[in-house]
Amino acid sequence: MSDKRTIGMWLYKNGGGEAIGKKITKNLKERNIHTVDDINLRHATAKNANIIHKGIKLNKLDLMFSYNAGEQTIYQTYMYQALNRMIPMINSYDSFALTEDKFHTSLMLRNAGVNTADYRLFHRDEASEHLYKTLKKWNGMVVKPTNGWGGAGLTKVDNEEGLQMLMPTLNHGNIREVFVEKFIKYDNTDFRVDIVDGQFVGCYGRKAGGNDWRTNVTSGGSVFMRECNDDILDVAIKATKACGADIAGVDIIYDLEKEEYVVLEVNGIPAFATPEQEKMGLDLNDKKIELIVDLIDRKTTKQTKNKNKKIK
Question: Fewer C-beta within 10 Å: the chain N or C terminus?
Answer without folding.
Answer: C
